[in-house]
Each structure stands twice: as structure tokens, then as C-alpha cells.
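C-alpha cells please, single chain.
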Amino acid sequence: MHGAGNSFVLTENLHGELQGEDLSGLVLRLCAHSETDGMIVIVPAAADAADFGMLFYNADGSLGEMCGNGARCIARYGVEHGLARDPEQIRILATAGLVTARRIDGERYEVRLNDPSVIDLHRPAEALGRMFDCAYVELGDPGIPHAVVETPETELEELDTLRERGRALRRSPAFPRGANVSFVCRTGQARVRAITFERGVEDFTLACGTGCGSIAASLILRGTIPGDRLTIDMPGGQLSVRLRREGQCVHDILLTGPTAVVEEIEY
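Here you go.
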């Protein structure tokens, strides 16, 4: 499946299907075979806690805290395979905490991202001999680390240069656990263009859901974007975010966008 081009392999482990498997090795093989950004393993969750759980693995085999577009895809999978009790209130237990989602229509799903546990609107980070004014956001607890860098639109066209910058910032000492790095340019009153260099993939992806949530939170709190809604154009498609702001805090970050089933495979 993919969400706005952010692609994943999904597989169930609800009844011990993967017992004895080296999951990191399996992730590496399947992601390489399918050329996807990561793998989501659907696992059981206590009925009073969630409909089901998700383990999200990056393409390099490392375990991630959560994935916004992945959560939207797995919400659709849960509805279409009878795992979700209510398509208007889908509950998914991720490593970063409980995530809720709802079906908007057959392809579009909305997910409530984890509230930020860390927001630093101005964190300087050095890369390639230059200082960058980054906004740093961690969504969830343990949080998914994101750095947001406001960038002139002309520089978004220079992908080779931007890739090297993203690779350097992703491992900057300013971000102790590393970071996903989003480069963003405002293109309208409540619209931006963005691209994200993702840790674990170690390259740009076509879209990043938690990156969009972090972009919206940081730009709205910085005052770059007025109001509480943002449309984000990423290489793989358009995503939208709305949130609730209270002073210098944000809550209820809602990410909406398309999902698609690419193919079913046996391995």
C-alpha cells in the first residue's frame, strides 16, 4: 500500500504467523524486493486498548516509533479486513502511543497523530559548514524526531544539493536520536511545498505523514502560517493537516490524505 506515494509492505502477525522470524532481516528482504519505504506488522492489542497494534519498521530494518501515512494505510486495511470495530473510530496502538483514525471515503483516511512531547521552534544545527535555523518537534512519547527547515523554493529544485544537506542534518549532534528532515517553502496563505529526508530510508520519500504534522505544528507556532490548517504539497501528492492550538502548544493534529492498495504478494 501507499499513502500519497509513501509506500509500505503490510503483513499480519495476529496469530504468530511470523514466530521465529528475524524481523529485521525480513524487512530488509521485503522492502528491497518491493522497493518500499518500510514495513508494517499488524499485531494484537488488548481489546480495551485498541483494535489492533502496529510495529513500523524502516526500510533499513530499524524499528520506528510510528508512521503517519502508514497509520492511514493500516487503518484502511483494518476496515477492509474486519479488524476495526468502527470505521469512524479506528484505534491503533503504535510504539509512540495510541493513534486514532477514521474513514472519510473509500480511499481517504484521517489519522490523529500523537501530540508533540518536544517542541523547539528555533534549534540551530550545523551542516556542511553552515548553520541552519531548524524547528525541532517530537511527536509521541517516545517521540518521532523531526527537523523542519524553511527553504527558498528555488533550492527545492536542487535535489542533489538538498539530499546532501538532509543527510548531514539528519545526523547532526543537535538531534541526539537523529531526525527526519523536512525542507519547506510557503506557497500560499495556508499552503506549502515540502520534501522530507527520512532516517531509516536515508533518502527523500514521496511523502511523510508525521513530517507534515511537524511542519504544520512548527510553522503555525512560528507564525509563518496563520490559522490552524495547512495544505502540504509533497512529491507524491497532497496532504492536509488541521490542529488545535493553545498558546505555544498544539494538540489533536489530524492528517488527511489518500491511500492506495498496490498489490498483494506472497513471499
